[in-house]
Amino acid sequence: MTTDVTLSLAIPAALAASLHQEATQRGWTPESLVLDCLAQHLEVTLRHRVVLERMEQVDAALLQLARTVGEIEAAAENTEPGALCRYRPDRDPVEAP
Questions:
Q1: Could you report the per-residue pLDDT of 15-66, keeping only the tens digit for each?
Q2: Euclidean distance between CA atoms 46 and 6, whole angstroms
Q3: HEC profile for the chain?
Q4: Is the whole model's pTM more than 0.70, yes or no?
């Protein structure tokens, strides 16, 4: 169940006057203009946090991949490099479009 949240906002008088003037010139209320601005800012903030979280996940996955490759290389010093990869260009040719 979603309920509305009430916030109280105190802004300088000069900013309030500017908001009131700009909003009324366009047929808006100052409150609707502030709500739109806050909603946009919160959306950008949420997206920014998600991007940062995903970047951290990618960094962790790359680090794990590097560790795994290092372990494979250390364990396979005398192994033919082609034996580590299932792709065989001579066996699985790529056809040009």
A1: 999 999 999 999 999 999 999 999 999 999 999 999 999 999 999 999 999 9
A2: 20
A3: CCCCCCCCCCCCHHHHHHHHHHHHHCCCCHHHHHHHHHHHHHHHHHHHHHHHHHHHHHHHHHHHHHHHHHHHHHHCCCCCHHHHCCCCCCCCCCCCC
A4: no
